[in-house]
């Protein structure tokens, strides 16, 4: 049987580069169910969420779980997104909510459990010297004593370097509330750190 | 250390800790990001969504199917029920229906009611009747005076009830004629086909009649007679027992030392018969009174009275009463009282002894004494109304209306709609 060949020349079609898409485009694509949008959402916003979660919780593995939960929620709620152009702040707010829920859950677990909570996971501590590791472990031990909201506000202000206005917007609360949370957290943490002379020595040595 | 006006100052150690946190807990590596992306994409993969969707759709379908099945069953049941019990309608020849269901004769030839299901009712001239209920489930007819012939097509499980004077006839598919004469207080029911159950003031319980039997109850004479009217039916029954020797008169309670027992023809009772498993109550309900009397004769009346169960004794007493074997009825009732003094049947026997004595011309005083005992022993018993009514009637007969008025007042106070309310009002009328 003779083979039929087409003589029409083929043309190469280059796909659109999704990395240039705006946050709004990604949100709209995600809402439309386009397959590339989910991966692009992760690539673009996962570093932000993972970093925030790691710093808040002091744990890489817990941060990964939080990130998965955050992006799964975003994926489910994308169809109802009212302002696609504010996709980043939507994800950030979602991450803060998930974090706050997780912190509440951890507090409940600590009341019900006899074992002390893991303050700093090995992935973090393995890269630090002894003094820094002790200092960070004490820092997270003191953070455990804070209310979830105070803990998040302190991390956002002192570690993430966000302004009070930005924090108030992200946490959907007033600026004065943020300031009160920050004051409570700062006083409790400073007092707790100063009570450890060896840590203070370490700080001096480190300087 | 970052400070803003109005914000608290962190301690140096805390500042060092936050710096460490920022420096060592930084952004993820590309490897970490790719690993997280794989997990994320797997989590939102369509297969998973489809699995969830399928699970939900299966659950929804199951619920929908269950609901559909319930609706279907309900619909079929409703249709079957509707088909089973079609609407009943009737036609009246020779009369009409007034308010309240009263039947009015238009001429002097009686009335005929023809129901669409095939039942027929013929009322003789001058009969006063009433259609109390005619609906899908039940027909309730009343004959207040006169005679009615019934041919009931028992269909669709419809209940047929006939009030004939103070008697209630429950029809179970049959042809019969029933009449009530309020002047002579006589109830007459002739059953040609099928069976009926009669309840009324002359019996303590139900009287079941079968085809060929006739029940005549005369309240004035305190007489209840059941006869076999169809020869072939009678031939199947055992021959009637010979009349028992006359028992000595029974003295009312308190005056009599020991009841007398007639001496029947002795017969050797079998073990099963002696065990009391005679099922006479069932035979009584079927109207097989002659069979009961025949059994008692075969076993031996004395042995029966001494060893039969409470229920069998009671059935024997009633069978004897229905057959006008008053001596045997009295003996059975006295045996019931003597052997089972604390039973419910013993109380009923006390009342029935009154009825038995009342049936004899010379037994009025003794009957009153039995009714008195019943009223004393069971002041709120089921037969109090009957006992009080009979006592009132007998007192009027024996001692005059003046003595009976007190009883009439008591009767009306306790049973204003009772069977004897009319007689009580007559006694109290000026």
Q: How would you summarize the topology of this molecule?
A:
The complex is a heterodimer of chains A (207) and B (430).
Chain A: H1 23-32, H2 35-57, H3 60-77, H4 87-112, H5 122-125, H6 130-145, H7 148-159, H8 164-171, H9 175-194, H10 197-206
Chain B: H1 12-24, H2 30-43, H3 46-84, E1 90-93, E2 95-97, E3 103-105, E4 111-115, E5 120-123, E6 128-134, E7 138-151, E8 159-164, E9 167-181, E10 186-199, E11 206-210, E12 213-218, E13 223-228, H4 231-236, H5 271-274, H6 280-286, H7 289-299, H8 301-307, H9 310-322, H10 326-339, H11 344-358, H12 364-377, H13 384-399, H14 401-414, H15 421-428
Parallel strand pairs in B: 7-8
Antiparallel strand pairs in B: 1-4, 2-3, 4-5, 5-7, 6-7, 7-9, 8-9, 9-10, 10-11, 10-12, 12-13
Helix pairs in contact in B: 6-9, 7-9, 9-10, 10-11, 11-12, 12-13, 13-14, 14-15
Description:
The complex is a heterodimer of chains A (207) and B (430). Chain A is mainly α. Chain A is 71% helix and 0% strand. Chain B is α+β, with helices and mostly antiparallel strands. The radius of gyration of chain B is 39 Å and the shape is elongated. Among the domains of chain B are: 147 residues, Jelly Rolls, CATH 2.60.120.1440; 112 residues, Serine Threonine Protein Phosphatase 5, Tetratricopeptide repeat (Alpha Horseshoe), CATH 1.25.40. In chain B, the strands form two sheets. In chain B, strands 1, 4, 5, 6, 7, 8, 9, 10, 11, 12 and 13 form an eleven-stranded mixed sheet that branches. A two-stranded antiparallel sheet of chain B has the order 2-3. Chain B has 15 helices and 13 strands. In chain B, strand 12 and strand 13 form a beta hairpin. Chains A and B meet through helix 2, helix 3, helix 6, helix 7 and helix 9 of A and helix 1 and helix 2 of B.
